[in-house]
Design a protein that fits this description.
- This is ADP-dependent (S)-NAD(P)H-hydrate dehydratase.
- The protein is of the alpha/beta class and about 475 residues long.
- Helices cover about 40% and strands about 15% of the residues.
- The protein has 17 helices and 18 strands.
- The protein has a nine-stranded mixed beta sheet, sandwiched between helices.
- β16 and β17 form a beta hairpin.
- α3 runs parallel beside α4, α9 packs across α15 and α15 crosses α16.
- The longest helix has 22 residues.
- It is elongated and about 80 Å long.
- The structure holds ligand NAX, adenosine-5'-diphosphate and potassium ion.
Length: about 475
């Protein structure tokens, strides 16, 4: 798991570590890491460092200092390095001196043009969201072969991942000490490109309790997706139940079933009008038309394609009465938004999987730009794990933990893709995984499945996701 810390925690850790080091040590470590990534990129894209043109964009703070010291190092290796002040008039004196000594030059904003590599050191963790118009106009004149953001792309909200107005769009971001929210959530994460984390020695001073987000890694998912042991039978692996579909939405049950079949449960039960189609497509699923005769399960999924009529409401009531871990998706979310009594007094774990419109129905207003806080607010209010769908799906647990999903592709924005996600999720819950981890694992594997299904530009639909989910599970299990 990679932890993500907000600016205050980073500053606290930096000051603790700096107290025992000669002044400027951390900046030199940052500059050395930045130089390495920059040099590697120059070699990769332009064949070498010597003679390549590098432009340093600076502002008034230490972010520009990092860029200037890294630029001085690149100038020492023969790159033609220029620096331009994009924001304000105050400059980082130490960095300026180092660059001048190394043979770098300072140019006026009118003279910027194309450069092989541009280092964006306008603002870092001291940046307020939204750059002044003068800075934006200066940035517009910059043309880059490759843009590398120093710490974060300038202009973003570092702690929320919002991108206000014009922010720098980088192909690479070199960050120091730890990940910050802007790297993993919201539109800012789209502006970062590939993230390179440089160890500057502050890790030991970062307190776990100050972390605001966690990013699951492949090894976490591999550990969470239970594998059967010698003592297992189909029941001990967990039985998942799916209550889905209606004559109006007959496809949703098949897609949810396909998602569940890729999960760790030992058996799947199905209740709904499409029970025959479900068995014909998935003969291992035990299916009945009515929820009353469905049998016992360790976790229920309700909602995909059920509609919101009286029959769907009755089915949902039945599911909630079972008091087992339950996923509410799609129409079930609309129903609980309409009938708040449905969740009153509930004790068994609940996972809700809203997209933004469903979130608005449940919460009363749409998610804010700070999606992690929005998901957490709904999770606390309803005492349920909330999987807030979107480009970087957020999972918030009412216990306060929040996960940012690192996988996925916009190709997943296709009808029925949420049904397969919900199916996989109920299988993970049935296997005994807690709600937060089950939701985080489902989002991770679903995102990876989307990447696989859409690889090499292939058009992907939800029908492709069942097989792709199996490939995703296999791939996280392959060391
Ligand atoms: N603190 C440390 O120990 C370390 C910091 N490092 C670097 O230092 C950076 C932070 O430096 P600073 O704290 O100096 O902050 P920044 O360099 O991010 O920017 C601060 C300056 O920019 C101005 N500013 C910010 N946003 C603005 C806006 N939207 N419009 C107009 N002016 C704006 C501020 O008023 C201030 O003068 C980090 O991101 C990192 O790059 C690294 O050298 C590693 C060590
Ligand atoms: N722009 C995007 N980038 C990445 N993933 C996306 C994007 N838009 C939607 N998704 C993902 O696609 C899925 C869509 O689910 P949902 O909206 O429930 O669709 P449906 O109801 O048709 O099944 C979710 O997992 C969501 O996170
Ligand atoms: K920056």
């Amino acid at each position: 798991m990679r932890e993500v810390w907000p600016v205050t925690a980073v500053r606290k850790a930096e000051s603790t570590v700096m107290a025992s080091l000669p002044e400027g040590t951390l900046m030199q470590r940052a500059a050395a890491g930045l130089e390495k990534v920059a040099a590697d990129l120059l070699v990769k894209h332009f064949g070498g460092v010597y003679g390549r043109s590098v432009l340093l964009l600076t502002g008034m703070g230490d972010n520009g200092g990092d860029a200037l010291f890294a630029g001085a190092r690149l100038a020492g290796r023969g790159a033609a390095v220029r620096a331009v002040q994009i924001l304000g008039s105050r400059r980082h004196e130490g960095g300026h001196k180092a660059l001048r000594m190394a043979g770098g030059r300072f140019i006026s904003p009118e003279d910027v043009g194309y450069h092989d590599l541009v280092l964006d050191g306008v603002t870092g963790i001291g940046g307020r969201p939204g750059l002044p118009i003068e800075a934006v106009n200066r940035l517009r004149k910059v043309r880059a072969g490759v843009t590398v953001a120093v710490d974060v792309p300038s202009g973003v909200n570092v702690d929320t991942g919002e991108a206000v107005g014009q922010a720098v769009h980088a192909e690479h971001t070199v960050t120091f000490g730890c990940l910050k929210p802007a790297h993993v959530t919201g539109p800012a994460s789209e502006l970062c490109g590939e993230i390179h984390l440089v160890d500057i020695g502050i890790g030991r001073a970062l307190r776990h309790g100050d972390s605001v987000l966690s990013v699951p890694e492949e090894s976490d998912i591999a550990e969470w997706v239970r594998r059967p042991g010698p003592a297992d039978d189909k029941y001990t692996r967990g039985v998942a139940g799916i209550a889905a579909g209606s004559t109006r939405y007959p496809g949703a049950p098949l897609l949810a079933a396909a998602g569940a079949q890729a999960g760790p449960a030992g058996m799947i039960r199905f209740a709904g009008d499409q029970w025959r189609q479900v068995v014909s497509r998935h003969p291992s699923i035990v299916a009945t038309p009515g929820i009353e005769e469905a049998g016992r399960v360790q976790a229920w999924l309700a909602g995909p394609g059920t509609g919101t009529g009286p029959r769907a409401l009755k089915t949902l009531e039945h599911v909630l009465e079972a008091e087992v871990p339950t996923v509410l998706d799609a129409d079930a979310l609309t129903l609980v938004a309409k009938h708040s009594r449905l969740l009153a007094g509930r004790r068994a774990p609940l996972v809700l999987t809203p997209h933004d419109r469903e979130y608005e129905r449940l919460y009363g207003s749409p998610p804010e730009g700070d999606r992690a806080s929005s998901a957490l607010a709904l999770a606390s209010r309803l005492n349920a794990v909330v999987l807030l769908k979107g480009h970087r799906t957020i999972v918030a647990d009412p216990d306060g933990s929040v996960y940012a999903n690192p996988t996925g592709t916009p190709d997943l924005a296709t009808a029925g893709s949420g049904d397969t996600l919900a199916g996989l999720l109920v299988s993970l819950l049935a296997s005994g995984l807690g709600g937060g981890r089950a939701a985080a694992a489902a989002a991770y594997l679903h995102g990876l499945a989307g990447e696989f299904a859409a690889r090499d530009g292939r058009p992907a639909t939800a029908e492709d996701l069942g097989d792709a989910l199996r490939d995703a599970v296999a791939s996280v299990r392959t060391p």
